[in-house]
UniProtKB/TrEMBL annotation:
The keyword Hydrolase applies. Keywords: Hydrolase. It comes from Kitasatospora phosalacinea. It is an enzyme of class 3 (hydrolase). Pfam families: DDAH_eukar (PF19420). Its EC number is 3.5.3.18. PANTHER family: DIMETHYLARGININASE, DIMETHYLARGININE DIMETHYLAMINOHYDROLASE. This is Dimethylargininase. Belongs to the DDAH family. InterPro entries: DDAH-like (IPR033199). The keyword Hydrolase applies. It comes from the Bacteria. One of its GO terms (molecular function) is dimethylargininase activity. The lineage of its organism: Bacteria, Bacillati, Actinomycetota, Actinomycetes, Kitasatosporales. The gene is ddaH.
């Protein structure tokens, strides 16, 4: 079975109708998913990929999000763009303002135009493609009234300043130093407006100090849970959808009052992605 939807968690949700605000997400089916190049340490073009399994695991993720009461919109996949399934990398959306990604690697550059067309068709009025290298919610995570932004591998510090101007929220810059955690959303997850979880060893010393200052009660992931992409998680403020292999992190979340919802995601992880990579939040407010 490819998806575990945590029935007990769903039962608790029914008794607490205010838990987990309804969100709107953009996903893209992995119909053209493949590992044809290596632009992060997880990618090995010589390792076989089972697209049918990837599609089944992605459908399980979409079903879980809908079962939690969230709206799922779809971006049509395009041939020649095998990483389009990772919609979170394509843009950042705050209060209806859209900053479309400007990808570092040429292999993904075509995804920017695909995202921009979708936002235009969906009648988002303020849509701008980044001038600076910027990989969307991969590196720009909205955390309440601030944006946590990464540099070091994909998104530049100049892009942080651009994001602050365009999206209207103050940006906190954090440097990543471990190439396995090349995007912020592989090393840190926003749980709600005031709480995060992260893997300290993925960050430069100054970034670790800043995270301790901002989030003294953060959940700290172990190395095995980080390597299982446990931090590449989708939270609605109560339910946290994360890879099933991150069992220790699921226990920490439960102890902190969240409801972990584990999903199987091993096939898409072959390209260096997890549940959050596949989910772009569309914030209208």
């Amino acid at each position: 079975m490819d998806t575990v939807t945590a029935p007990a968690a769903h039962a608790r949700t029914r008794t607490r109708p205010g838990a987990g605000a309804r969100r709107r997400y953009l996903l893209c089916p992995p119909e053209h998913f493949a590992v044809e190049y290596a632009i992060n340490p997880w990618m090995d073009p010589g390792l076989p990929v089972d697209r049918a399994v990837a599609l089944r695991q992605w459908r399980g993720l979409a079903a879980v999000l809908r079962s939690l009461g969230h709206r799922v919109d779809l971006l049509a996949p395009e041939p020649g763009l095998p990483d389009m399934v990772f919609t979170a990398n394509g843009a950042t959306v705050v209060a209806g303002r859209v900053l479309v990604a400007n990808f570092r690697h040429r292999q993904r550059a075509g995804e920017s135009a695909a995202h921009r067309r979708w936002f235009a068709a969906a009648r988002f009025r303020q849509v701008r493609t980044a001038a600076e290298v910027n990989e969307g919610e991969g590196d720009l995570l909205v955390a309440g009234r601030r944006i946590l932004a990464a540099s070091g591998f994909r998104t530049t510090t100049a892009a942080h300043r651009e994001a602050q101007r365009v999206l209207g929220l103050p940006v906190v810059s954090l440097e990543l130093t471990d190439p396995r955690y090349y995007h912020l959303d592989t090393a840190l997850a926003v749980l709600d407006d005031t709480r995060v979880m992260y893997y300290p060893d993925a960050f430069a010393p100054a970034a670790r100090r800043e995270l301790r200052r901002l989030y003294p009660d953060a959940i700290l992931a172990t190395a095995p849970d980080a390597a299982a992409f446990g931090l590449n998680a989708v939270s609605d403020g109560r339910h946290v959808v994360l890879p099933a292999d991150a069992r220790g992190l699921a226990g920490q979340l439960r102890a902190a009052g969240f409801v972990p919802v584990p999903v199987q995601f091993a096939e898409l992880r072959k390209a260096g992605g997890g549940p959050k990579c596949c989910v772009l939040e569309l914030r209208s407010q």
